[in-house]
Amino acid sequence: MLIIVVTCVASGESILCDTCTCQNSIINCTENGLIDILDLWDHSEILKDAILMHFDDNGIVHVKQLPPSKVRYLSLRKNKIYKIEEKAFIYLKSLLELDLSYNSLTAESLNPEIFKINNEDTSKLGSLIHLRLDYNNIHSLLPHTFKELSNLVSLTLAGNPLKVIDRPTSFALSSLPMLKVLSLSNTALHELPDHLLHTPRFLEVLNLSNNEFIQIPQGLSEAHALQRLDFSSNPIKSILSFPKMASLKVLHLSHMSELNNIGPRALSLLTVLEEFHCTHNNKLESIDPTAFSYKLNDGSERELWPSIVKLDLSYNALGYLDSRLLSRWDVLEELNLQGNKWICDCVNQWLVSTLAPMAESKHPEFLYDFNCHEPIEMSGISILDLDHRNYHMRCLDYYNNRPEKDGILLIGILIGVILTVPFTMGIMMCCAKRKNSLSYYHRIFNQNKTPYAHDYQLRETSIYQPTSIITDGY
Q1: 332 contacts 356 by C-beta, under 8 angstroms
Q2: Can you give the C-alpha Rg of the chain in angstroms?
Q3: Main-chain dihedrals φ then ψ at residue 71, nearest 5 degrees
Q4: What SS3 state is found at 453?
Q5: Is residue 93 within 8 Å of residue 72, measured between CB atoms?
Q6: Burial class (CB in 10 A: 0-12, 13-18, 19+), 420
Q7: Helix H or strand E encompassing 48
Q8: Which are the contacts of 211, defined by CB distance < 8 A and separation ≥ 6?
Q9: What is the DSSP letter of 127?
Q10: Are 369 and 338 in contact (CB under 8 A)?
Q11: Residue 265, by phi and psi: left (phi above 0), alpha (psi -120 to 50) or beta?
């Protein structure tokens, strides 16, 4: 570890700065292996004016009440903390962000009093707004865990073994009226309480990725202001309908190993969607042309689409992409179609003529793996190269006949005929020679018959013709 030694004025500061890195109001005591490193806090004046403090990866197990400081960001991640004293941070009046991730905290460890900060004006500095509790051992939350955090804006609970959002946990989350960012990623959830998202009316970002959902939770419709949703890495097989989220602008549906299709009107209630990231879904073969489109409830039949400006469909198993999926492809700022199993026929000609040059003009790096997968004679050919050659792809046979294979078949037949004709002629010649030989031997045999046999044959013939002889006598 790089140690930067800073000359410190106060008597205790040299001890701290010899042990840690002290520079520009930043104290970095990461990975020093000192279990009691927080005890240095009491003996160092420099800590009182530090803005950022890192005490990560030091084997700390117990956090006691800390002395006054102007610190705004305090990180205690990757320790072994299982106990925090009540009012441990009460004198950190400027504290805005507290990172307690990757420790051994449980629901019982999170006494509501530990988050109490002695500041009468909670609208100013001194009210904690970012709290990280990810990757601890939290199975549930006590109902009043966050009662001292009414101004909390961001909360991360990712990586905890929640499994279900029980009533106490739901109450605790609902007690955060100013919450804007919530991460419940990798918490083994398979369902979401219907009214969980009703109280945090300002929630803008929700991460539910890497869980066990087998269907889209309808409780998402309770999120009034949700703008970004990450629902990746869930074992959903088919997306047929998404609940209405009037404010949702960014949706992530990636790394879903079981997802095979997105059905008609499946995303039609997301009318203000601007970004759709649907990548690395190895079984996703089709997206219905009407997946995004919707109709107004005014009796008209006019089709409308959200104004999507970023579309990432890379590394799925798509063979075709319908031009009706979006109304305006030309307004896209980003388009990534790499790594799919594109079928290069006349139906997908617009990929060559329209989308390839469009992507090249904005993000050519997204065309590195934009290749044909079928038919076999075009496998691996760059779709962008086809555009450069003004190539017009043929239509595949309606009955799935493969003319490109007919040539090989005909050549095989021709070679077979060429080889068969002389072989057949050879056999015929051999047979003819054999027949001539038999005739020869037959003649020789007849010529070499004994006289007795000849006479016997004559007598045999005359026996059967007596009438003719007598008749001839008259």
Answers
A1: no
A2: 42
A3: -55, 140
A4: helix
A5: no
A6: exposed
A7: helix 46-49
A8: 184, 185, 186, 187, 188, 189, 190, 233, 234
A9: S
A10: yes
A11: left
Residue 67, pLDDT score = 87
Q: Measured in Å, how far apart are the chain's first and last C-alpha atoms?
A: 146
Q: To which residue do tokens 């106990």 refer?
A: 83
Residue 76 exposure: Cα atoms within 13 Å on the Cβ side:
27
How many CA atoms lie less than 13 Å away from 52 in the CB half-sphere?
A: 10
Provide the residue type at 72 as one letter: R
pTM of the predicted model as reported, rounded to 2 decimal places: 0.80
Nearest Cα residue to 136 out of 100, 158, 105: 105
The predicted pLDDT at position 3 comes to: 32
Residue 136: which of 111, 156, 166, 165 has the closest Cα?
156
Q: Tell me the torsion sign for CA atoms 53, 54, 59, 63.
A: positive
CA distance 28 to 73: 12
The model's pLDDT over 202-249, given as tens digits with 9 standing for 90+, comes to: 999 999 999 999 999 999 999 989 999 999 999 999 999 999 999 999
Indicate the Cα dihedral angle 64, 65, 69, 72, nearest 10°.
Answer: 70
Q: How confident is the model at residue 23 (pLDDT cuts 50, 70, 90)?
A: confident
DSSP one-letter code for 198: T
What is the rounded distance in angstroms from the CA atom of residue 299 to the CA atom of residue 344? 39
- At residue 427, the 3 state secondary structure works out as helix
Among candidate residues 418, 381, 376, 433, the one with its CA nearest the CA of residue 400: 376
φ, ψ dihedrals at 213, nearest 5°: -70, 130
H/E element holding 84? strand 83-84
Burial (CB < 10 A; 0-12, 13-18, 19+), residue 253, is buried
* DSSP-based three-state secondary structure for 22: strand
| SS3 of residue 382 by DSSP | strand
- DSSP 8-class letter at 65: P
Residue 41's SS3 state is: helix
**Pick from 23, 57, 20: nearest CA to 41:** 20
One-letter identity of residue 80: K
Task: Give pLDDT tens digits for 60-100.
Answer: 999 999 888 889 999 999 999 999 999 999 999 999 999 99
Name the helix (H) or strand (E) containing 219. none
Cα separation values, 432 from 135, 383, 440, 442, 443, Å: 91, 61, 12, 15, 17
Amino acid at residue number 31: E
